[in-house]
Write a structure and sequence with these properties.
Elements (H helix, E strand, L loop, with lengths): L1 E2 L1 H13 L7 E5 L15 E7 L2 E3 L5 E8 L1 H4 L3 E8 L7 E12 L6 E8 L2
Antiparallel strand pairs: 1-7, 2-3, 2-6, 4-5, 5-8, 6-7
Length: about 120
């Protein structure tokens, strides 16, 4: 996983003032399988932004974000990347995750993304 420049800057702002640019959506894409800290969004957005299904802060120094997509939403898609984003418009990524080989969905499989941050 790569923490983006936006995410690094946003962390300081959010921790200091609980600013409005905190993570609020997960977004998925069909990307290229390349990581760069200069990324501010997805290479190729697929589907709709997903507000978190849950956010768990019950464990000290950890935040777990969860997003769920139905098999209908994922049908026919090839997933290669996802971001934790500030808002529903691509370009404000707190982090970017990709995988070299695409995960293809045939309409029979749901998707759940759980992303846990630990503050050091």
């Amino acid at each position: 996983m790569v923490s983006t420049d936006f995410g690094k800057s946003g962390t300081a702002v959010a921790v200091g003032s609980l600013a409005s640019n905190r993570p609020t959506f997960l977004m998925i894409g069909s990307g290229s399988g390349t990581d760069l800290t200069t990324f501010s969004g997805l290479i190729a957005v697929i589907g709709s932004p997903k507000a978190f299904t849950s956010t768990d802060i019950s464990t000290s120094k950890k935040i777990t974000y969860q997003g769920d997509w139905t098999s209908v939403e994922m049908s026919g898609l090839s997933l290669r990347e996802f971001i934790l984003n500030a808002g529903s418009v691509d370009g404000k990524a707190w982090n970017y995750e990709n995988f070299g080989d695409a995960v293809d969905f045939d309409g029979s499989t749901e998707l759940r993304i759980e992303l846990t941050w630990e503050v050091f």
